[in-house]
Amino acid sequence: MISRVAIALLFVLAAGLSLAYARAPRPVIVIERPGQCVEATEVMRRDHMTLLLHQRDRTMREGIRTRPHSLAGCVECHASAKTGSVLGEQGFCESCHRYASVKLDCFECHASKPGRVSARAKP
Amino acid sequence: MPRLQARARLGPGEAVSDPERRGFLATAAAALAGVVIAPGIRLIEIAGARAPEEAASARVRWGMLIDTAKCASGCTECVKACNEENGLHGAGRPRTDAQWIRKIDLKDPRTGRQHSAPVMCQHCAEPPCVDVCPTGASFKRADGIVLVDKHTCIGCRYCVMACPYKARSFIHENLSEQKPAVPRGKGTVEGCTLCVHKVDRGDGTTACAQACKAAGHEAIVFGDLNDPQSAVSRRLREIPSIHLRADLRLDTGVRYSGI
């Protein structure tokens, strides 16, 4: 009982604090390409990491490249027109991850800018 | 006496050894798959093409024939094309820079005969690199392509040591400007992928084979070893060829002729 109250209190405090200070700059989410994402926005916000990891194994191990959750695909759509990249302070992937304190190693190997040739198979 | 009876029971087509029998079945399957709807249009293309959602399967075995009689000494078109296709720009350190194809010059000291050949990952059916990999990152795809899953590679380099063909490289430097279709990064091992991104796209060839052809040599023939009608299978039927280090019985997907 006491612990429940404590947790509730904590939540209220945390919410108040984050409103009061906004310590980390809010993420910049600019969608330049009109249209839709590969899944509903709610799903993308919560589950994009799972979708990506699943796609990764399907492509890497089985050579299936038609699934929509391709990392090269994210970059094609979400790269900024200004920097050409999904990285950087205002970059689509990086700015949100900075806010959420997530650090990716994906772009040490994967191109952060769209290329001439899409990694996805021809239909 | 019982032996004779057993033999008599075999039909004419069945009295063949296992590999030949498999060859016969493969021909039959190819004949079925190659049903012609209209001249020039097949119901199912037999050049190893698969439906986009279909996983790579063991019906296909990708491989190459390297005809050293046609490979020109001093020519490095295949190496250049490989570097270009896969975005391999070295750091100017030849001893450690990634190298997916090495051009080898051979000379018989007795006769003085010289020839040259590209050596890359031989895409073994029994790959030692897969046996030694502690994380399962080094693996063989169902269609015979041996790859490194860099997501699980820890950079231990056991596979580099295990490979009898010196076909694997380790990336020592931070990289930038990788090709979108060929992610590469520091701390992982890599090697020839048989241009897996092109193969999956349905190109039916590799960058090295294309470049060799463009240079007028056609020393590299790529294709499906399981399809008796493929260019590579036809060529393999015509000329003698060997596995490099056949004594290791790795059943490589790359074969050489004229060595």
Concise synopsis of the structure shown:
The complex is a heterodimer of chains A (123) and B (259). With 123 residues, chain A is mainly alpha-helical. Chain A has helices spanning 2-21, 41-62, 71-78, 92-100, 106-109.
How would you describe the overall organization of this protein?
- The complex is a heterodimer of chains A (123) and B (259).
- The radius of gyration of chain A is 18 Å and the shape is globular.
- Chain A has a domain at 28-108.
- Helix content of chain A is 51%, strand content 0%.
- Chain A has helices at residues 2-21, 41-62, 71-78, 92-100, 106-109.
- By secondary structure, chain A is mainly α.
- With 259 residues, chain B is α+β, with helices and mostly antiparallel strands.
- Helix content of chain B is 25%, strand content 16%.
- Chain B has helices at 2-9, 18-33, 77-86, 128-132, 158-162, 196-201, 207-214, 231-238; strands at 36-38, 41-42, 62-67, 102-107, 114-119, 138-140, 146-148, 169-170, 189-190, 220-224, 254-257.
- Residues 1-47 of chain B have low confidence and may be disordered.
- Chains A and B meet through helix 2 of A and helix 6 of B.
